[in-house]
Every structure is written in C-alpha cells, then in structure tokens.
Amino acid sequence: MLWTASQALRRFSSSSHYYQNKLKLAIIGQSQFGQEVYTSLRKQGHKVVGVFTVPDKDGKADPLAVAAEKDGTPVFKFPRWRVKGKAIPEVVDAYKAVGAQLNVMPFCSQFIPMSVIDQPKHGSIIYHPSILPLHRGASAINWTLIHGDKKAGFTVFWADDGLDTGPILLQRECAVESNDTVDSLYNRFLYPEGIKAMVEAVQLIADGKAPRIPQTEEGASYEGIQKKSNAKSLDEEWRSSRTKLLQLQAQVDLAQPAEAIHNWIRGHDKVPGAWTVIGGQSVTLYGSSMLGGAVPAGQPLELEGVTQPGLVTKSGLVLYGTDGKAVLVKNLQFEDGKMIPASKYFSSGESCSVELNEEELKIAADIKAGWNIWKGILSNVPAIEDTTDFFKAGAASMDVVRLVEEVKQKCPDIQLQNEDVYMATTFQGFMQLLVRKLRGEDQEDELLVNYVTKDVNNMTVKMPNQCFINGRFEDAESGKTYDTINPMDGSVICKVSYASVGDVDRAVAAAKEAYDNGPWGRMNPRDRGSLLYRLADLMEEHQEELATIETMDSGAVYTLALKTHVGMSIQTFRYFAGWCDKIQGKTIPINQARPNRNLTFTKKEPLGVCAIVIPWNYPLMMLAWKSAACLAAGNTLVLKPAQVTPLTALKFAELSAKAGIPKGVINILPGSGGMVGQRLSEHPDIRKLGFTGSTPIGKQIMKSCAVSNLKKVSLELGGKSPLIIFSDCDMDKAVRMGMSSVFFNKGENCIAAGRLFVEESIHDQFISRVVDEIKKMKIGDPLDRSTDHGPQNHKAHLDKLLEYCEVGLKEGATLVYGGRQVDRPGFFMEPTVFTNVEDHMFIAKEESFGPVMVVSKFQDGDVEGVLRRANDTEYGLASGVFTRDINKAMYVSERLEAGTVFVNTYNKTDVASPFGGFKQSGFGKDLGEDALMEYLKTKAVTVEY
C-alpha cells in the first residue's frame, strides 16, 4: 500500500513503543484484568518469563492462567506464598528461577513475601483502585462512593511492606457521577484505563523514566474491607481484592441525611450489598439514586431505625433521610436470595397473597362447587382443594375456554382471558388472580409517554425520548441526556435519555424476568405470532410518522424511508410472525441397543435474553431485521440503537406496548456504544448478541462475549463489495443500477458497491453516462418528495468522507466529480466519482460508507484477473456482476467470495432471503429462515422404551 506522509506518521507513532527498551516480567495476580494486562504487555514486546496465579477453582483455571498456558508461558499456581508470615522456600526458589527484572501485580489477592517483592532489579509495581493515599485498603472503590468523593481513579505504585504505602509511579482520575456504582466506575474507567496505565508504567520503567513519588500522610486514610455474612459470589474482577467475609459491616444506617444513605447503598452495589431490616428479616438494597422532584404516591413500609416510614411506589422504594430528602431504591433481595423490583414488595412471592373478604370467599366457594364450574369441569376429582391443579387434574384446552366463559357469565364485569388460566393453574392461584381482577389491582398501567412533538411534513409527529425498560418510558438513572441532531440543518431535534450501565442491568433483569416468569415464554406460539402481526399493523398505521421521524433523525430521503426503512421493517415483522408456529425439530433414527428401543428427537428452543446493537444507517430496518426473528423465536431482548439515531427505535417501543407485547419483552436503551454496548456484551444473563456495525467493534464485541459467558454472537460487519461490469452488459441498466449500488441511501449502505470494476472497452462511456446522471440528481431537503440525495447522517461521518476523498487524491486517483461538501446548511456531500484507482490505494481497500464511487478498469476478456482483484479483500458481504452472458454470470457468481451476489441488479434484498457476510464481514444471517436459527438452540432428547 502507498502510504501518505500523514498516514506513515500515524503508523510510526502507533507502533514506535515496540522498538523501545523491553523487560523480562513476572505477572503475579489473577482475573480477566490480569489477563488483559498480560496480553497487552506481550503485544508491546515485553517478555513474560512467568505467570504466578491462583490454583484452579472447580477444575477451571483463572483467565490469566488460561491465556498464559495457551501462549506457552510458564505458569505457577501456588495456593500460598507464606505460612505464618514466613515465605515458603520452595515457592520463592521457583519464583527466582524465572529471572524476572520486574514484578507486575494486577489485582493480586495473595500476600507476597518481601523477598519476592524486592527480588527483581526493578522491584514490583501494583495496581490499586483508588487515588492513593486516600482509601488505602482492599475496598477502596467502595469507600470512594461511601464518602461521596467527587473523584475516583487508580494508582500504580511501587510495592513496599506497608499497607499500600509505597511510592507512586502514576495515577489517573475520573469524575464520579451522582449514581455511579462500583460496577459503573469499573466498566467505564478503572478497567479499560487501568490496563493502559499498567502497560505505560512498565514502559516508563524500561526506559528509565518512571518516577517514585513518596506518598504523603496528608489526606491518607485506611478503611476496612466491606463484606457481609450473606453476600453472594463476588464479581469476578473484584473477587481478588475482597477476601474473607466480615459480619454486619454493610448494614445501612437510615438515621442520616439522604445523600449519605444513597452513598452507602451504591458503595455496596452490587457486592456485598447494603442491607436493612424489613418485616423482621434482612433485606439487601440495590440500585439507589437520589430522588428529585415530587415523591410518587405509594404504600407506607415500616423500617427499623427510621422516624418516617418508607414508601413503596411504582418507581421503587422511597427512603427518607433525616434532612427530609429522599432516596429511590430499585431492587430488593431477601435472605433466601430472591431478588424483586422494590415496587413489587407488596405483590411478590409469599406477600402477594391477598386476604379475601366475605363476599370474595362466597364467590370462591361458588366457583369451586356452588356454581358447578371447577367441580363440573373436573368431575373426576373427589373434591376441589386450594392446591388442585387444573391441568394435572385432567383439564384440556377446551376446558380452559369453558372455565373462562362460565366465570364471565357469573361475573360479567371481570376481564378474564384464556391465557390467565395458564398463568394460575391451581385453584388458589386462580382465585388470587380473579380477586385481583375484581378489585381492579391487575389493570395494566396506562403507558405514559412524555412526547416531544413537532409539526413537520404536514403532520404532528409524537416522539418518545426516554429509555424504555420493562414496559415503561423513564429517564436514565443518572438523569443524563444528549442532543440528537437533524442532519439537514444541524439543528437539535430533541434531548434523549443517555442510558448508563445501571440502566442496562435493569433492562436485562426485566427481560430475564419476562422470559423466566412472564407470559411471553408460556404463550402459545400462534398467539405470539398474532401479537407480532398486530405490531406490524400498528407500524403500518404509523408508517408516515415513522418515515418522517426516520428522515429527520437519519437524513434518509422521505420516499426511501417510507418504502425501505419503514416498509421493509413492516414486511419483516409480518414474515417472522408467520414463522412463530412453524418452529419444529425432527426425529432421528439412532442405533438401537437391543432389547431396548430408542426414540431420538430434537426440539428448537429460544435462547433467553438477547442483546441487539444496531447501526445508524437504517435505524428502524436494522431493528426489524434482528428483533423480529429474535421475538418470533420466543426470546426477550434489550436493544441499543445507534446513539445518533435513536428516535424510531423509541417510537417502535411505544407501538410494541400498544400492540400488547408483555412488559419486559422489549427494552430500548439509547446511549453510548462504549458504555451500553460494552455492558451488553459482558452481561452474564444475556445469551446471544446480534450486532451490525464496523469490523473493529465487532471483534471487540466478540471477544467480550466470549470472555464473559461464551454467549452466542452474530455479526454483520464492514464491506468493500465489488461490482464487475462486463462490456456485454445492458448499458442502461448497468449505469442505473451501478449508481444505485453506490449512491442508494447516500452511500450509507452496508452492501454498497465499494469498488466498481469496469471492462476497459466500455469504461469511458460508463463514466461519462454516470457523471451526466449525477448532474441531474437533486440534492436538498429529504422531506421534499423530488429530492434524490439527502444529507449524510452526522457531521463526524461527513468529515471522515471528506478526508477519505483527500487521501484518494493524494494517492493519485482521478477525481472525476464531487469530493466536496455542498455549500448549504447541513451535512450534505456531493456524489463523488474516482477513476484510475489502483489496487494498492487506500480507497481501493477501505470502505467509505458514503456516496463515493471508486472505479477501476480491467482488461477486456480478463475474467480470471478481475475475479482475483475482486476477491482481494478481507471483506465478503456482497458483490455484483453485470453481463448478458448467463454462463459468465453463473461462473463469476460461483467464484465471488461474498454472502450475497447480485446478477444484473443490485440492492435487491427480501425478507425471505438470508443476508450476511463471509470473512471479516462477519458471520450469522439476518432475514429468512436462517435468521430464526440464529436465535434458537437445538436440544436432542433420547428416550429408551
């Protein structure tokens, strides 16, 4: 590749550390953090001569050990280094034998003897999650939050024989947000920046530039380890720095100001958990935030140690501080480990039983036998008891209809559905459900939406702008928002909630509850399909509004948004709605073990909670392509729209609720990919992640998914799709479709033809006709029905495209047309054409993702040569060929290395046809039956009889 001067400089700068001084290192520690530090140091050229980590637990090696063993690095797994304070000689000897020049200790939980600490030439450095000398000790981050510090951070220091008192090598700081937890600080800053800092520290030592700044005693503090006797298993990354449990230290004192209560709870969230006594038992409090504004209505809850009772509201448990201010707690965990939303305290588990009054007791007796309903249906049962199960007693689906209709006949005011019987199968459970309905307690909360409204496109569009979690629109936990921009003029459309890691955890918990215990998982597949059909119908009713929102938020030309962005989304939901009751396994003949016989069959089952992360070029359509298959398969989902285009996803959330999709099944979180997307890829309760976006981010997501819990992944990534145009093509069609292959949706199209190969004899004619057609294109307001070409999605992308064109010019490609920003407000770019593009050039290799046509010639008749050039890319998403020769077309289509091949057409996708790439364009399929399989697992059952 021919590098420009600026590119060469960037390349040299990014790799220059590799040629600096290098050390022989011993890594002493454990956890995923330790593994990342180890891997990063090796990539920088340092030699790791030994890894000293902890013994395997339950037969499973620590992540640091796994990585080192794979690389062939010597690994030592000592249970301990000292006995009664004295170093174990054979352990120390084994350590000395590796000949390390520096010990690197990321999250080391073991007590290392000073004979080992001081042995190497350069001593030892340790990572500590606090800004030393503040919060010396193992629970440093907890105390950062408990004390309400405005800054958090970490220190890399030189180990000594004190309690985190050695000289400081380097420190990094970050601001503490009002609702940060240990997890959010860790994920946002302490983990990613800590890895970089450890590598930087080692290089400073290798280069002889590492400082040794003595720790001052001014501001120094030491707090004990925060533990609790009933704490559950600790988060993997912090397990190493929190050793044995200490009794009672995490109990929250409710007789203090609200902010102090909030800080105490969040300082212990998620581990070990701050607790208090409610109803005579210890209850752990999770998900705390300061409550601003009016306190919602609720039911009082008596708590120990307070002068004012708490309040169970629809938003959670409200706790009052001594200053009169309030704290909102989202989740509660009981002594048996069961966790519930705090809002459900009075309607969950054992406490959900309601006491029937005299009139309700009479109704129960009548339903049981007096009206001959349950007894009449279950005539084979001697007596109907509270524990009698409707189905175990022999009832069938027809009996469900009879039960519902008979009850409605006797109680005409009740809204009872067949599905209710399946949700409450015992007589006692059925009566509890019935009484709640009679009292009106089970009525669905009205969907409250704080719309942003705009009069545009001859209509009033109503846009939700908050997170959608568990069937409700609500602000992000942090209260943060950001502006979403109209690319036509750069104006702010509205402010949108900026989801946090805590919001992700709440959304995943809601999706998991909906999957495990909600009606979605128990629903007849045909009924599930009916709901998806209803959702598609609602989308169609609102298609003009959806297309208008899509145009404002993404810059798509309205007519294209109406037909493709929205139209294909509707088609996708209808297509997969039809699949719901057609998901089936097969029977398999296996070898019989005589005299027994065997029956083996397979079942297709949903995966559970799925995460979906979508790009900004087709915001609604990408949502539909993935979520329709996911939902049809019976999963629940948490979806992150692109940060710059969240509005149609949030409108979709509103329509899904109105369609009757149960709470928690669909959750939408606008916000940062680095925060929300990363947490989704790491979350242990997510079983599948579907991603569309760039290849580098796809690789990072795949790595996080593998390390976290080996969740299933499907990736639709970058492309550099070749389009080969032979001289025997239909020229009119080749020009029209060739332009569409590049300029469709402003070039913001994953399958856009990234490089056109035009046979030499027609090359000049093709270019001339393309330029003539470009000059006829109308660039302007995307809501104008006659507009051909709208603005690029956002300013950063426009700037990147302009830089892309500059590189093409510097490398020697011929700019035939365009290459500039249009002189008008907004993010408009001229359709651009480059010719004389050689294979080594940057624009021949890299995707523009914009309206840039990159054209290369190939010699007449050189089919094999152009195929080699077309396949000379790491991408393989799509491709195309134009020729009237069907034999040539089939030959070329067979040899093009891409997931989709278009012959004498382009951009022709259909909901029934699988879509996905090869090589570094990813794996897995959207659309078609193949997409459904991405969201199912196969279970084999063998029966011997």
Automatic annotation (TrEMBL):
Positions bearing the site annotation: Essential for catalytic activity: D164
PANTHER family: ALDEHYDE DEHYDROGENASE-RELATED (PTHR11699)
Enzyme active site: H128, E716, C750
GO terms for MF: formyltetrahydrofolate dehydrogenase activity; oxidoreductase activity, acting on the aldehyde or oxo group of donors, NAD or NADP as acceptor
Positions with a binding annotation for NADP(+): 614-616, 640-643, 673-678, 693-694, 800, 847-849
Protein name: formyltetrahydrofolate dehydrogenase
Keyword Transcription: no
InterPro entries the record matches: 10_FTHF_DH (IPR011407), ACP-like_sf (IPR036736), Ald_DH/histidinol_DH (IPR016161), Ald_DH_C (IPR016163), Ald_DH_CS_CYS (IPR016160), Ald_DH_CS_GLU (IPR029510), Ald_DH_N (IPR016162), Aldehyde_DH_dom (IPR015590)
Pfam families per record: Aldedh, Formyl_trans_C, Formyl_trans_N
